[in-house]
Design goal:
The structure is a single chain. The chain is an alpha/beta fold and about 325 residues long. It has a single domain, classed as Glycosidases (TIM Barrel). It has 13 helices and 9 strands. It has an 8-stranded parallel beta barrel, surrounded by 4 helices. α7 (about 95-115) runs parallel beside α9 (about 150-160), α11 (about 210-220) packs parallel to α12 and α12 packs parallel to α13. The protein binds alpha-D-galactopyranose. Alpha-D-galactopyranose binds near residues 171, 201 and 232.
Length: about 325
């Protein structure tokens, strides 16, 4: 079915991105070329995406995506240097603080130089605790590098990658208490000139998220005077603890999902002066991480269904 091109429809607003992996690079090449002006490696540039278990580098998977994108004039977002997942936790536990810092330094320098056309990196991902009354997530990075490790890693990134945009990326940003902690962290980094953009992941769903909550999130972040990258959009259907299989969506669910997509993109267009990119976390539904999350059920949360056909949400966000 012939459709408009997403990236063309949004060319006066912001880049349209997708998380890709090597499988979807093979299966969805035409969709990527037609609709997306930016890509993020779904896994391949994470710490363990770039290294084997013995910590030696293996660039093959990341190179394939990077080269495809650059050859086709598509921007690549760097994702990510420091996260509690995408590492080898047991290997990390045995490292000294000094060795971990050395590895991180090597990671930033090597990836920064090898993927030289990447202009923005998510330096730290999801550092805020899931206990919103708390502060930082308890991770191996924090335990090894200390309570102010977030300052350490951004100082390192600024020194090693002086010409890159340094981003802080996190989820549930539409929930006020979580956002408060994100803003606190961003302000601490900002005070030392260590951050250049905020990454709002935007993994949302029709049960817990509303257009009002999204609007407040964009409004609050816009006050920080930094550009925004919307980094991991998907609009899921049930709450995480609802075991209903999702392969058959009701008309009401489809409508709610399409409406929330439509509202999100309308809000993003309003803030387009400060939004640099809006990235979907996957190209089509069969790629979505949600299929493997929690109840392991078929999920539909993206703009293309598992056959690669546009969903109702696709039409809603391209007609305005
Ligand atoms: C987080 C990470 C992403 C991706 C998703 C889904 O949001 O930032 O890289 O792994 O989880 O798994």
């Amino acid at each position: 079915m012939s459709t408009v091109s997403l990236k063309d429809v949004y060319k006066d607003y912001f880049k349209i991105g997708a998380a890709v992996n090597n499988r979807c690079l093979d299966n969805d090449k035409q969709l990527i070329l037609k609709h997306f002006s930016s890509v993020t490696c779904e896994y391949e540039m994470k710490f363990a995406g770039l290294r084997r278990r013995d910590l030696t580098f293996d660039f093959a998977n990341a190179d394939k995506i990077y080269n495809f994108a650059i050859e086709n004039g598509i921007e690549v977002r760097g994702h990510n240097f420091v996260w509690h997942q995408g590492i080898y936790p047991d290997v990390f536990e045995d490292l000294s603080k000094q060795r971990l810092l050395q590895l991180l330094q090597e990671q930033m320098k090597t990836a920064g130089e090898r993927y030289s056309k990447i202009s923005s990196w998510d330096v730290l991902n999801e550092a805020i605790s899931d206990d919103w009354n708390g502060w930082l997530r308890d991770t191996v990075w924090l335990r090894k590098l200390g309570d102010d490790y977030f300052m350490t890693v951004y100082r390192m990134a600024r020194r090693l990658l002086p010409d890159k945009k340094l981003v802080y990326n996190d989820f549930n940003e539409y929930e006020a208490p979580k956002r408060k902690n994100m803003i606190k962290l961003v302000n601490l980094l900002k005070a030392e000139g260590l951050i250049d953009a905020i990454g709002m992941q935007c993994h949302i769903n029709i049960k817990t998220c509303t257009a009002d909550a999204l609007k407040r999130a964009f409004e609050d972040f816009s006050k920080l005077g930094l550009p925004i990258h919307v980094t991991e959009i998907d609009v899921g259907l049930p709450e995480m603890d609802d075991p209903t299989p999702l392969s058959q969506m009701s008309a009401e669910q489809i409508e709610k999902q399409a409406t929330l997509y439509q509202q999100l993109f309308a809000i993003m267009r309003e803030y387009s002066e400060i939004i640099e990119s809006a990235t979907l976390w996957g190209v089509r539904d069969d790629q979505s991480w949600l299929n493997n999350f929690h109840f392991k059920r078929d999920c539909t949360a993206l703009l293309f269904d598992k056959n690669g056909d546009p969903t109702e949400a696709f039409y809603r966000i391209t007609q305005f």
